[in-house]
Specification:
The protein has helices spanning 2-53, 67-71, 76-100, 123-141, 154-168, 181-195, 200-225, 233-254, 266-279, 286-302, 304-323, 327-347, 350-371, 387-409, 417-433, 435-439, 443-449, 451-468, 475-494, 499-503, 505-513, 523-535, 550-553, 571-584, 603-606, 608-617; strands spanning 543-544, 588-592, 619-624, 627-631. The protein has a 4-stranded mixed β-sheet with strand order 1-2-4-3. Helix content is 67%, strand content 3%.
Length: 634
């Protein structure tokens, strides 16, 4: 009896000791966490203090008029401040992690080893993939075709440039392209070819199709990254459904009727999908690598800024493959790059290629100066209406960087080494893409540019939750997870579906593309259009205004290639514009003295050389509302 009591006492003592040790371990983990947290917080405070100190010298040798020229500020400030503010906390975390968690570290360069996630066929996941495809297609068929007023600036650019290339067969030689061969020329012409109607409604309907195609690629991208985290089949399905719903919600929230920007991200999505196979495979991916190389030229033609980001991603992937000694994939990737640019060289004539190079270089070089806005100082909520979004986006990038390096440096995570490398690659691409948000730092562009960082954040947070919540591993619940997700997905999707629209899609589409363009115009543009058609015999249109839509409304070609005034940047380009005016001698020039639809610096202030030439060589024939018609009778 005494022995028994003594044994129980010893057992109780051991239990107490184990509890005490466990408590010490928990306290130690919290202490380590707070050390790192405080260090990162201090680094953010320091980075905020450095924000105003970083002020580079203003330089504008070509006299590009814009936000920065009016304030004598360097546009490079944004980029340097962004890099310092985001990288300082991330590097602080890496250093502190190595000091505090030194017993739980792996060598960073191990991520280049060929250790890949287990990718097993998951029929339930494939079922949900096709279910999302179907629901997205039904959502597309449910689209309401409403004749919302046209955007005279953004949509006007596509409509007029597309119509000009249709008549003349010229691209860069006939139009000073703002950003994209596809959006400004190919897409409008393709929309008119499909509908057989050269209308605003045709272009709008085609943009809806592009929205659907973008959604399909996004869904497949989410399906691809499900394989990163070595989930069992049930967790994989849960991750896919939740991330897909959140990502589609974010994407649809960013889609604007007046400026459907989302489809421009298609090349970025494609390289992220294709790169997954190159990074997460033991075997050569020859066709995959070839396809990535083909994106080099295609992406530039699709959208210049996205093309630059895609080519940066290709360069980064080349370094990764070099570290992995995957020389066969490198060879095929280079072959793809060469094939894409050789095809471009053979398809377009020498004059088009020359103008492409001049046009692209000039616009890209001066983009920060004519397009840029100063990025709001972090936490400066009282003085800048965009500071809240700007600060939130910067913190998202910092959090993503910290979470990814926590995965990379932690030897106890279930994520494979190759998956860690891919997540780092994804983060780097998303980091580069945010360049759009730090160039044009208004709310619209910042929320567009943070899209990929948002995907990273919700993916990492959901991965953390899935790993922490234990009931996902209970067999009794496993059997019902797919069924519950199916019902949940149907219920939240069906509220957006309009059965009448789905079954009458064809008739609604035909009605929409046949709507007269006047239905999309405000009264002042209707009046101007009718006045110009009835009173003037235009052989071509020359604008000196931001009304990019006017050549399309009058169904006339451009007199000179310089009709989208916004991107006519420097004094050098203005001189070329004036020379072309002298050579082409357009009889009429249309000037808008009060373009009120977008707050832009008036053209007469931005392009003084051109304005002086017009005043010296043209006379005012007539004023129509806010428009002035200049004439040259010589």
């Amino acid at each position: 009896m005494g022995l028994c009591i003594n044994f129980k006492k010893k057992s109780c003592n051991f239990a107490a000791i184990f509890k005490f040790i466990n408590l010490i371990e928990i306290m130690d983990r919290y202490i380590k966490f707070f050390k790192v947290f405080i260090g990162v917080t201090i680094s953010i405070i320091i980075a905020t203090f450095l924000w105003d100190i970083i002020s580079l010298n203003y330089s504008n040798p070509n006299n590009v008029i814009g936000y920065y020229s009016e304030r004598n500020l360097s546009p490079t400030n944004n980029l340097v401040r962004f890099i310092v503010f985001t990288s300082l906390p991330i590097f602080t975390y890496i250093i502190l992690h190595k000091i505090v968690y030194k017993d739980n570290l792996i060598n960073f360069f191990l991520i280049f080893e060929n250790n890949h996630p287990n990718v097993n066929k998951n029929n339930i996941l494939i079922f949900f993939l096709y279910l999302f495809f179907l629901l997205s297609f039904l959502n597309f068929l449910s689209t309401d075709f409403i004749p919302i007023k046209v955007n005279y600036f953004h949509e006007g650019l596509s409509l007029s440039s597309g119509y000009n290339s249709k008549i003349t067969g010229l691209f860069w030689s006939g139009s000073y392209i703002s950003n994209s061969l596809f959006s400004e020329h190919i897409i409008p012409n393709l929309s008119w070819l499909i509908s057989k109607k050269e209308t605003i409604g045709s272009l709008r309907a085609f943009h809806d199709l592009l929205r659907f195609i973008t959604e399909i690629i996004i869904i497949y991208f989410i399906y691809t990254i499900c394989k990163l985290f070595n989930y069992n089949k049930e967790k994989e399905v849960i991750f896919f459904v939740i991330i897909c719903l959140i990502t589609l919600y974010l994407n649809r929230g960013l889609t604007e009727t007046f400026y459907p920007n989302r489809y421009r991200d298609i090349p970025i999505l494609l390289i992220l999908i294709l790169s997954f196979n190159n990074i997460n495979s033991n075997y050569p991916k020859k066709l995959n690598s070839l396809a990535i190389g083909l994106l080099s030229c295609f992406s530039i033609l699709w959208s210049v800024d996205r093309g630059i980001y895609v080519n940066a991603a290709i360069l980064l992937l080349l370094f990764i493959l070099l570290f992995k000694r995957n020389f066969l994939n490198i060879t095929f990737l280079f072959c793809g790059i060469l094939i894409s640019w050789i095809f471009f060289y053979l398809y377009f004539d020498g004059l088009e290629i020359k103008n492409f190079l001049i046009n692209t270089y000039s616009v890209s070089k001066d983009a920060n100066l004519f397009l840029g806005i100063e990025y709001p100082k972090p936490f400066d909520f009282d003085f800048n209406k965009h500071a809240s979004r700007g600060t939130k986006n910067l913190l998202i990038i910092i959090i993503n960087g910290i979470l990814i390096f926590n995965l990379i440096l932690n030897k106890n995570t279930k994520v494979s080494l190759s998956s860690k490398l891919y997540l780092l690659f994804f983060f780097c691409i998303a980091y580069i893409v945010y360049k759009n948000g730090i160039t044009r730092s208004d709310g619209y562009h910042m929320k567009q540019a943070i899209f990929f960082q948002n995907i990273i954040l919700v993916s990492l947070l959901l991965n953390f939750l899935i790993e922490k919540i234990q009931y996902f591993s209970i067999n009794k619940i496993k059997k019902y997870i797919s069924f519950f997700l199916f019902i949940f997905l149907i219920l939240i999707s069906i509220k957006d579906l309009k059965i009448f629209n789905i079954f009458n899609f064809k008739d609604r589409y035909l009605n929409y593309v046949n709507i007269k363009d006047n239905e999309f115009l405000s009264d002042d543009y209707k009046f101007l259009k009718n006045k110009l058609i009835n009173d003037y015999d235009f052989k071509c249109i020359q604008l000196f205004s931001y009304d990019a839509i006017i050549p399309f409304l009058l169904k006339k070609k451009f007199c000179t290639k310089y009709n989208f005034m916004y991107v006519i940047t420097s004094d050098t380009v203005q001189k070329v514009f004036v020379e072309e005016l002298k050579n082409k001698l357009p009889k009429y020039i249309i000037f808008n003295k009060n373009f009120k639809y977008i707050p832009l610096i008036p053209v007469e202030k931005r392009f003084k050389k051109v304005f002086n030439y017009i005043n010296e060589n043209y006379q005012i024939k007539e004023e129509i509302l806010d428009w002035v018609i200049y004439v040259n009778d010589n």
